[in-house]
Amino acid sequence: MADFKVTDRALTACFVFPADFIGFQGHFPKKKLLPGVCQIQCIIYMLEKWKKNKVALMEIVSAKFLSPVLPLEEITCECREIQDNDGEFIVKAFISKAGGRVAEIKLRARIAGEERKDNSSVIY
């Protein structure tokens, strides 16, 4: 992660995955593509950096993957419309690269290990 920025409106950061990144193994052997789960992990990592705490993913509300990400392509992740309700976050994220939009993802997450509103712990 590079160029991590926090503003009153968004979190932004850039990511580059080298050709030998383990996430490319098997996805796909002859044409490496960054798996969507790795893009989701970028969002979680940004939230953890922002909150200075581990974050537990509770739900992938929606995920639209619009364009492939190849090794060494720089992607920019922007998290907007972050709703922080008693430690539970709803995050809308947009991932892009030089060629345009890569993904639109909406997640529900919370600080790992904190009690939920229904008094059950988050599993992580």
Care to describe what's here?
With 124 residues, the protein is mainly β. Helices cover 13% and strands 46% of the residues. A hairpin with a 2-residue loop joins strand 4 (74-85) and strand 5 (88-97). The longest helix is centred in the middle third of the chain and has 16 residues, at 36-51. The model is unreliable at 119-124 (pLDDT under 50).
Give the topology.
Layout: E1 2-6, E2 10-16, H1 36-51, E3 55-65, E4 74-85, E5 88-97, E6 100-111
| Structural class estimated from helices and strands | mainly beta
Largest sheet: 6 strands, antiparallel
Q: Tell me the total number of β-strands.
A: 6
What's the order of the H and E elements? EEHEEEE
How would you describe the oligomerization state of the chains in this entry? single chain
Question: What's the total helix number?
Answer: 1
How far apart, in Å, are the first and last alpha carbons?
Answer: 23 Å
Overall mean pLDDT stands at: 89
β-strand percent reads over 45%
Low-confidence stretches: 119-124
Helicity level: 10-25%
General shape? globular
- The spatial strand order of the largest sheet comes to 1-2-4-5-6-3
